[in-house]
């Protein structure tokens, strides 16, 4: 039996190498008898579904699998997942994978007993008021270390009605338990490790400098930044290092807890890059974060100075953007939207979408649509 730790903050969190073997016991703890595993085809091909399904079956549960989740989820993924849940007569969602299957898993459980169009639940329009506690239970098992969605209160999906990445948020979407097993991330390729790791770092950094007073989120965000700075390079270069893998899983988890305070302009820039250009969300954040950090120095200098120091630079806000660029280079990510294949001709349309994204409303320095356009320009060459 694996050695693992149990935390509650407020999600029940089981952490440790081999802890995925506890999936069946956690399902039984919730009184479940039939599980729908929501995942993607990459997770299935990698063999990561097998220990989860074996643990569930070993505990006496029937197991069905829905693996049609896209890398940037669309509304159809949610509706198809709800249909699969009903067809299986399931009473438990087990979301397995990176941020996309975890987000879709939350929205599948929402859709089981909530009949409104998904756009009605948009957090930007107060859609959480329509979300009740009538959702089936869910276990979350991450296979990446980036979004922290396993402990998050939201799902992100591109909706049919507006073709925009939309956040659906409610504490009622929190998983009943999250199982964080570093062994489930050890086969993650270097690029994906770097990109998802930068997503975790961006969550922590943007939450820390976001507007508002939330000392608990600030403290968690700072520790998440420290963990990412300490472990990301090692996780990229030595994928079998379970200490580094575990450190990044902690950083991702902490970023998702911290950003209940808010995010910022970087996420508003990143969301359209995924929905319109197909960029991995973590890569989109990595490409835009230095420009956003430089933009925010005028409004958040003391905090950015502290972040710079955690990243190994002088404790000077002016050094923070370059520290982010240097880390991005050390983990092998592209420098600039141009190298990532984003056409210059799309920047105006991207800026229009970024301005509609609610994340930038928490940015420490107010930013207009034209500011967001200039941040894309600043990110274009790197």
UniProtKB/TrEMBL annotation:
Needed co-factor(s): Fe cation
What name does UniProt use for this protein? Answer: Alcohol dehydrogenase
Organism from which the protein derives: Sorangium cellulosum
Oxidoreductase as UniProt keyword: yes
* Membership in a protein family: Belongs to the iron-containing alcohol dehydrogenase family.
Its organism's taxonomic lineage begins at: Bacteria, Pseudomonadati, Myxococcota, Polyangia, Polyangiales
The cross-references to PROSITE patterns, in alphabetical order and at most eight, read: ADH_IRON_1 (PS00913), ADH_IRON_2 (PS00060)
Q: Which GO MF terms does the UniProt record name?
A: alcohol dehydrogenase (NAD+) activity; metal ion binding
Which controlled-vocabulary keywords does the entry list? NAD, Oxidoreductase
Q: Which PANTHER family match?
A: ALCOHOL DEHYDROGENASE (PTHR11496), ALCOHOL DEHYDROGENASE 4 (PTHR11496:SF102)
Segments forming domain Alcohol dehydrogenase iron-type/glycerol dehydrogenase GldA: 10-182
| Domain Fe-containing alcohol dehydrogenase-like C-terminal: start-end pairs | 193-379
Please give the InterPro entries that the UniProt record associates with this protein: ADH_Fe/GldA (IPR001670), ADH_Fe_C (IPR056798), ADH_Fe_CS (IPR018211), Alcohol_dehydrogenase_Fe (IPR039697)
Coiled-coil segments on the chain, per record: none
What is one Pfam family matched by this protein? ADH_Fe_C
């Amino acid at each position: 039996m694996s050695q693992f730790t149990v935390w509650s903050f407020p999600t029940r969190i089981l952490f440790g190498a081999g802890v995925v073997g506890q999936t069946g016991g956690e399902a039984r703890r919730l009184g479940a008898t039939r599980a729908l595993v929501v995942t993607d085809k990459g997770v299935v091909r990698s063999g990561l579904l097998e220990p989860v399904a074996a643990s569930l079956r070993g505990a006496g549960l029937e197991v069905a699998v829905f693996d049609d989740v896209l890398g940037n989820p669309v509304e159809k993924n949610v509706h198809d997942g709800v249909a699969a849940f009903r067809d299986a007569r399931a009473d438990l969602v087990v979301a397995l994978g990176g941020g996309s299957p975890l987000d879709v898993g939350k929205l599948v459980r929402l859709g089981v007993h909530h009949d409104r169009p998904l756009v009605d639940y948009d957090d930007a329009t107060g859609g959480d008021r329509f979300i009740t506690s009538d959702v089936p239970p869910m276990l979350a098992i991450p296979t990446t270390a980036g979004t922290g969605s396993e402990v998050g209160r939201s799902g992100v999906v591109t909706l049919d009605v507006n073709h925009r990445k939309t956040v659906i948020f409610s504490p009622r979407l929190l998983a009943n338990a999250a199982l964080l097993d570093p062994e489930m991330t050890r086969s993650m390729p270097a690029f994906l490790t770097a990109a998802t790791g930068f997503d975790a770092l961006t969550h922590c950094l943007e939450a820390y400098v976001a507007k508002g007073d939330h000392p608990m989120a600030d403290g968690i965000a700072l520790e998440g930044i420290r963990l990412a700075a300490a472990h990301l390079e090692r996780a990229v270069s030595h994928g079998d290092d379970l200490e580094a893998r575990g450190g990044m899983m902690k950083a991702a988890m902490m970023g998702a807890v911290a950003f209940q305070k808010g995010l910022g302009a970087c996420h508003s820039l990143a969301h359209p890059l995924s929905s319109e250009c197909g960029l991995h969300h973590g890569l989109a954040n990595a490409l835009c974060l230095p420009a956003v950090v430089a933009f925010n120095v005028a409004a958040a200098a003391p905090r950015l100075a502290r972040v710079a120091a955690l990243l190994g630079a002088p404790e000077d806000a002016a050094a923070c953007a370059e520290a982010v660029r240097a880390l991005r280079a050390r983990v092998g990510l592209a420098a600039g939207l141009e190298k990532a294949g984003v056409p210059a001709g799309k920047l105006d349309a991207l800026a229009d979408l970024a301005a509609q994204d609610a994340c930038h409303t928490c940015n420490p320095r107010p930013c207009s649509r034209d500011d967001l356009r200039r941040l894309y320009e600043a990110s274009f060459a790197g």
